[in-house]
Amino acid sequence: MNETTIEIVKKSENDKVIAFAGNPNVGKSTLFNVLTGMHQHTGNWPGKTVELAQGYATSKKNSYVFVDLPGTYSLMAHSPEEEVARDFIISEEASATVVVCDATALERNLNLVLQIMMLTPRVVVCVNLLDEAQRKKINIDIEELEQKLGVPVVATSATHEKGIDELLEKIDIVTQTDYVAGRQMLEKLDKITKEPDEKRRIELIIGRAAATAFQVTTYDNENFDARDRKLDKLFTSRLTGIPIMILLLFLVFWLTIEGANVPSEMLAKVLFSFQDVLNDIATWMHWPAWLQGALIDGVYKVVAWVISVMLPPMAIFFPLFTLLEDFGYLPRVAFNLDNAFQKSGACGKQALSMCMGFGCNAAGVTGARIIDSPRERLIAIITNNFVPCNGRFPILITIITLFFVGNKNYIGNSLVAALILTGTILLGVMMTMLMSKILSKTILSGMPSSFTLELPPYRKPRIGQVLIRSILDRTIFVLGRAIKVSAPVGLLIWILANVTIGNMTLLAHITTFLDPLAAIMGLDGVILMAFILGLPANEIVIPCMLMGYLATSSIVDYDSLGQLKVLLIDNGWTLLTAINVMLFTLFHWPCGTTLLTIKKETGSRKWTWVSFWVPTLIGVICTLTTTAIWKLFGL
């Protein structure tokens, strides 16, 4: 595995570097964004910061570079991210450290505060989420806490941007050359440091944190977390946890399918009708036929298809997924699946990286950094592609709509489509666990490790921020990447479809060559070629299929699903073809971006190739088996 390093980029030589530390899920990234004006992705689940963000802020006295360190519960652990946090805090780079704490769980958070104070006295304790504490009637005496710790303490509410100026003032204080921290707590920590037994040392730190929190915290309502406990009984119980998880997955897919059908068709009609305008412009400008064909029939139509198929579902799916994330539900998914992953020889944290894969498998691969064990991290990376990313959802939804439920916009059809899609996703999850088990018994053998997973409090999602973040940070970003990839691939397909060798185009030569292998997989050469050309991004697989099938060597105005189904059936598609396309969509090689990310994360060509071939071989085996069974029973 590659080691994480920190390279500080200062705007001026006078910039002071401030480490931003804290437990996972204390609002650290949100506070970092408020301070620096950056829009780092924040979310209500542990381990969100898997890369080190840097931002800039200026107080009345100084200019600062803030470094957002990975969330950690301890500096005594051994994961790469926690080692980076510890090493950076004690390095000469950091002028001071801001430790962000959760006001609703001060005792647990003070463990990290005390550990950092054992390394450096230049600490500012930021008690965040004060608004939540007030709602739960938890009172913290900030002045008393500051006196007990002997370092500056400030109360903040990052979501309401309260306490930010005070925080900067406190940072100004601890970065002064003549700053001296209070000695009472530091002397107690010095004694703990001299304790030779690590286990005893940890017990003393926990005891000191508990005593300090008890002295400064009062509760007007002892049952402040009663609602959370009731919800957890529902969401995490053995009886209802898994069924509710599946039901929520189904609901998200149903809302996505039901809401995206009409906008997709409308968008397709608008974009494809604009082709006439482009052709008129090209004719008026006297473009040569080859240039007009390449740019309009090749590039534009592929891009138009990608936009019309991807944008509406993503604009619905990402906000819904982000709402669940903000609500605090996703860590409960990891909790529910922990036992299953343990039995598969993997780590329960793999459920979190798997959830990230629904948005983007490359993000899921990067998210595997939250897994401490290198062996289990590799398992998570290799199997992450078994859950479909946003680029594969449109393929699955299109095939399900065309061949399983019909393209009429009836609510019953969308319910059945969502049910089939949910079943497909669950198949991917089960394959993830099966392959994790096989890998843990073969090339990545070992015992599964235990881990501590914080179940954060349930929080009311911030609808406005959810919409902005999911549309700008996710939907537009992913769509932009797809357009960048689809444009050159559209040009390539047009060239292949229009350059002739002998009596056949290059495209026909390629598909003819692939036909024998594709046939035994229940596919055809065009489908297999489309998946190969879709290596840069899965979003372009269906446009590649269309280009391969059309005798006109370009994508015509297939602006409705009915027309698309006719085209596919005319080219030999059957129900078996549709099933195998869905299986191969679910199980085939990762996209180019994901493969590059795997290479970066593992630092190994070997594991990158393993990550390529494992899902691909599973896809080939599944389609071969399905085709053989289909023919055996004469279906």
Descriptive notes:
The chain has two domains: 16-219, 3-Layer(aba) Sandwich (Rossmann fold); 240-633, no CATH class. The chain is 62% helix and 7% strand. Helix 5 (142-149) packs antiparallel against helix 8 (198-216), helix 16 packs antiparallel against helix 23 (575-586) and helix 20 packs across helix 21. It has a six-stranded mixed beta sheet with strand order 2-3-1-4-5-7, sandwiched between helices. The protein has a two-stranded antiparallel ribbon with strand order 6-8. A two-stranded antiparallel ribbon has the order 9-10. The radius of gyration is 28 Å and the shape is elongated. It is built from 25 helices and ten strands. Residues 41-46 and 551-557 have low confidence and may be disordered. The chain has 635 residues and is of the alpha/beta class. Strand 9 and strand 10 form a beta hairpin. The two termini are 48 Å apart.
Q: How many DSSP E strands?
A: 10
The chain-level mean pLDDT equals: 85
- Rg is 28 Å
Percentage of β-strand residues = 5-15%
Most strands sheet: 6 strands, mixed
